[in-house]
Amino acid sequence: MWQEPKTDWVAEDYFNYSDYNRIKNNIAYLRERALEVYINFPFESMGDAKTSYAQYPYADEFNTLEDNLESLRQNTFLFDDSNSKQWYENQRTPNYEDFNRLERACLLFYDGFKNIKSHRGYLPMRLGNKFIKAERYVGTLVSKPRLSIHLGNSFVKI
Q: 55: Cβ–Cβ under 8 A, 6 or more apart, which residues?
């Protein structure tokens, strides 16, 4: 489920487990929206939700967030062109600039996928005595175009 990202992080803000969960869940939501338009692409599991302040995310968990956003960039339309970062154990942790970058990237992808879905083109056609409505996504760079056909109550994706 999509949660509105916090895109106004400042140096005085504290990052907690609910912020991590929001970013993680938004990235998972974006993948679901991407698969409505694009073919399947690599995506790493981001694990379970954090449930307490004692469960601060580790470097490898931040790397998974970064890797999944990069996978969205590489396999869908480039709504966000920021550079991903790699995090290392016992090194600097993400700061407010990094959280702004992550959350803005999520928001750009969300708006982009919403725009694609709202601007689908329709191609009416008749097969015999049944009217069908073929639906195709326009204005996108899709590596494998999809054509959806509605047959009465049936829905077929080609």
A: 17
Q: Are 143 and 38 in contact (CB under 8 A)?
A: yes
Question: What's the rounded Cα separation, in Å, for the pair 18 and 58?
Answer: 15
SS3 69: helix
Q: What is the pTM of this model?
A: 0.76
In three-state secondary structure terms, 47 is coil
Give the pLDDT score at 57: 92
- In the block, residue with structure tokens 């379970």: 48
How far from 4 is each of 43, 142, 148, CA to CA, in Å?
A: 22, 27, 30
Q: Say if residue 75 is exposed, middle or buried (CB neighbours under 10 Å; 0-12, 13-18, 19+).
A: middle
pLDDT at 122: 65
Judge contact between 127 and 64, C-beta under 8 A. Answer: no
